[in-house]
Amino acid sequence: MNHRKRWLTTVVAGAVMAGAVPAFAGANASTADVVAADVSPQLSVLASYNSGSGESGAEIVAFDVTTKAMLVTNGVLVRVDIVSLADPAAPALVRTLDLSGYGSAVQSVAVSGGVGVAVVSGATVLDKGKAVFFDVATGEVRSSVDVGVLPDSVTFNAKGDIAVVSNEGEPRCVTEGARLPTTDPLLAENPEGSITVISVRNRGRWTRAQQVTFGRFDSEAKRAALLASGVRVGTWPGSTVAEDLEPEMATIVGDRAYVTMQENNAIGVINLASPKVIDIVPLGTKDYATTGEVFDASDKDSAFNQQAWPVQGMYMPDGIASMTAPWGQPLLLTANEGDTRSYFSGIDNAEVAGQECFTDEARVKDLPLDPGVFGDTATLQAQAALGRLKVSAVAPSHTTSGLYDSLASFGGRSLSIRDLQGKLIWDSGSMFEEIVHTADPTQWVTSATTPAWATAPYDSRSDDKGPEPEGVVVGRHRNRQYAFVGLERAGGVVMLDVSRPTAPQFVQWATNGGDISPEGLAFVPAAVAPGGKALLLAANEISGTTTVFQLD
């Protein structure tokens, strides 16, 4: 017999919401797995830096040990804000680095030993971007170099002599030449995804930049092998594999970079010593019908209705981090946000309704289901059941004789821990959705007031991708390892003790009123943090704020 335990939390608008400390165990955690846990450190808000630019005024944050400053991207003003944390309780803007001369939008920033690097997209999202290296202490640009199309993230290796840029290369519904809008995906422009590996010397002067592409997977045989393994390629009509792969975020383990390919539900493995693609690892799906996992599938049921459904959940991670297990094995942690493929005609990221040339998104109620597989399809496709859920209309959803016999939803709504070969060690399952509901049950239904840290009432996201875990970082504190996961839609940061990677424990869901939609996270260990206490920095995309949490 399963006994569902609940835990108490306190929600205070404008302050941290801290919970008691349950734990979730097992490869696929559910609410039945809640057990008592030891007392753990807690996050408390020290201060918040407001860019003043609103949405996109703060997206990615990094911390420079040398200058004790945090670097925050400002996509609105195409700059990097360099903010002193000499007093973590009083962040102070030191200078801004104007990058408008290098492109149209700052996408990401990283730092190592006083050298910063920002990646900037080109004049349009179909042009090559730039990696710009600069001195954090002075703001002096030291060098810049071309990268791929639509650079999405940048990260340094541990030594700081290699920077890795993930170039997403998203399609746009425009034709070549004048780049006029088109609704024909076969005419749309679709740049190749790529990885740029940059060697860095002399405090920010690059010496070599190598572009890693995926063309060697374009043959019919290799394309077929990827599809058979579960990698989502071929969803865009007429695309090559190289065009279809969209690198997103990266973490570095030794001389390998592990890069999420969110839309492809895969991780790319890149050799940095001799830059090339080693492997593309499929992440598979979670079977909500058979594994005991549950989720709320409807935004029209006016209730928290977690249950198992006949659906496959694609993990589709965005953020990725790495850690070393107690037994010495490197592990990967992924925030399984999920993403549909809906592309528009705007080459400046504008999304104009009715000008999509392709989308793989459909609601279950609009798909012809096979009654031999799903049984009573009318009941299943009701709005309060599975009808509202958004699923992929293409692979791995599958049709036979025009009827769908399997359905795949976007995102795992979870944090996963895997080995370097992609084998799943642990997944948080329905934990995040359960945490959000239990902490604030009166605000779950769509008629409730949107919390001060969320983008929408909680239940309004049930038919989409749930709380949407976006970014993840790992930090060591007092001989234990913690993972911090930002929830893009529900808001706030979930803290987990991952010291035992096979059985992580939930510690806290921390929110701060006024912070909306955490995007980038950075952990600052106590040994290098100003004031001697570990910090967590969270950049919030919608509110344009970056909050300094202290780990007490």
What's the arrangement of secondary structure elements?
Elements: E1 22-23, E2 35-36, E3 43-50, E4 61-64, E5 69-74, E6 79-84, E7 92-98, E8 105-112, E9 115-121, E10 128-135, E11 141-149, E12 151-156, E13 162-167, E14 194-201, E15 205-212, H1 220-229, H2 241-244, E16 250-253, E17 256-261, E18 266-271, E19 276-282, E20 285-287, E21 295-296, E22 306-307, E23 312-314, E24 320-324, E25 330-336, E26 342-343, E27 358-359, E28 361-363, H3 371-374, H4 377-380, E29 390-392, E30 398-400, E31 403-406, E32 408-410, E33 414-419, E34 424-427, H5 431-439, E35 469-477, E36 480-487, E37 493-497, E38 505-510, E39 518-524, E40 535-540, E41 545-551
- CATH superfamily membership, which one? YVTN repeat-like/Quinoprotein amine dehydrogenase
Helix content: under 10%
**Compute the gyration radius: what is it?**
22 Å
CATH architecture call: 7 Propeller
The overall number of domains is 1
Form type: globular
Major beta sheet, specifics? 4 strands, antiparallel
Per the CATH scheme, the topology name is: Methylamine Dehydrogenase, Chain H
Mean model confidence by pLDDT: 91
Assign the CATH class: Mainly Beta
Q: Counting H and I runs of at least 4 residues, what is the number of helices?
A: 5
Class per helix and strand makeup = mainly beta
Number of strands: 41
Unreliably modeled segments: 1-37
In percent, how much strand structure appears in the residues? 35-45%
User: Termini separation (Å)?
Assistant: 38 Å
Q: What spatial order of strands do you see in the largest sheet?
A: 3-41-40-39
